[in-house]
Design brief:
- With about 300 residues, this protein is of the alpha/beta class.
- Helix content is about 35%, strand content about 15%.
- It is built from ten helices and ten strands.
- The strands form two sheets. A five-stranded parallel beta sheet has the order 2-1-3-4-5, sandwiched between helices. A five-stranded parallel beta sheet has the order 7-6-8-9-10, with helices on one face.
- α5 runs parallel beside α6 (about 175-185).
- The longest helix has 17 residues, at about 40-55.
Length: about 300
């Protein structure tokens, strides 16, 4: 998937949804909260960019949006609760995040209790009840599963392997399995193990002699998985990959350019969209840069 790191356009969109309102009635300072983990640097950039962009639009009304960001240990529920409580003292008009599974339900519950809009962009594996105050902008897994299944059919893959990482990913495969029965596809599934090198499983994939591979792993692990796939000999001119991460275009795949492997992926970001091209026009973003820049090398990805 699809993995839960949101694209720039998603964050711009969810900020737009909550912030576009009757500007004549807005106060001078409008606080907007966000919860990030320490490694979500690009998400922080996108949030700052969106806030600054809309603050610029409000300049003539003598109003501006003020970002209130908390960097939290998302795996520690107590600290998440503590930081959210501190954030609530600033009376934000909405809270964004977290952009991963840890702490998301807890924040959703707190926002519902205080009737504060909660917006997120992550792949849902929990399907608990949601109120009108809680909005998830990430494409639903059933839609993505159908899209990838249709793409596999279009590519005419009659035999293929699925390599996945998280147990929750099984839910993504329901459409594949349904299509496999209906279309008489031959499908094999392998799970990467966290306590051993990826090569151990990739060797098993190689032994199947199947050259069509669906890769469903976390975005931050894709490059390492592909390096080890190259080491065992399943990243060659004969192999064809469908990578389900929507953020593949943010990775540097230069090391695999000369493998001549056909790599297919989807994305919901328009590379030439002004939101992506003009982010450096916003002074505070260009100046701070949060120690990290956008890296979109997509020329060699089909």
């Amino acid at each position: 998937m699809l993995h839960p790191y949101p694209s720039l356009s998603i964050i711009i969109l969810i900020v737009r949804i909550i912030l576009l309102r009757n500007v004549q009635s807005l106060p001078h300072i409008i606080p907007v909260g966000a919860i990030f983990s320490s490694n979500e640097l690009e998400e922080q950039q996108a949030f700052h960019m969106a806030i600054e962009r809309f603050s610029t639009n409000l300049g003539r009304n003598n109003s501006r949006f003020e970002p209130i960001i908390k960097i939290v240990d998302v795996e520690n529920s107590f600290l998440v609760y503590h930081d959210v409580c501190q954030l609530l003292q600033r009376s934000p008009v909405a809270i964004f995040g977290p952009f991963n599974d840890y702490g998301a339900q807890q924040l959703q519950s707190i926002c519902e209790h205080y009737e504060i809009p909660h917006l997120e962009a992550r792949m849902l594996v929990d399907f608990g009840s949601r109120t009108d105050l809680s909005i998830n902008m990430y494409p639903h897994h059933s839609i993505l599963s159908k899209v990838f299944s249709d793409l596999i059919e279009t590519l005419d893959w009659r035999t293929f392997v699925i390599v996945y990482e998280d147990s929750e990913s099984i839910i993504h495969f329901s459409q594949y399995l349904k299509q496999a029965l209906e279309k008489n596809w031959e499908l094999r599934i392998f799970q990467l193990q966290p306590d051993q090198p990826y090569r151990e499983i990739l060797w098993q994939v190689k032994q199947t002699q199947i050259v069509h591979i669906v890769l469903d792993v976390k975005t931050e692990h894709i490059v390492e998985v592909m390096k080890q796939a190259q080491q065992v000999g399943i990243l060659s001119e004969q192999h064809k990959y469908l990578i389900t991460s929507l953020d593949l275009h943010t990775l540097d795949l230069e090391d695999f350019r000369h493998s001549r492997t056909n790599i297919t992926s989807l994305r919901i970001v328009q590379e030439q969209h002004p939101n992506l091209e003009n982010w450096s026009k916003y002074p505070s973003i260009a100046k701070n840069n949060l120690g990290h820049g956008f890296n979109a090398n997509v020329g060699h990805v089909k």
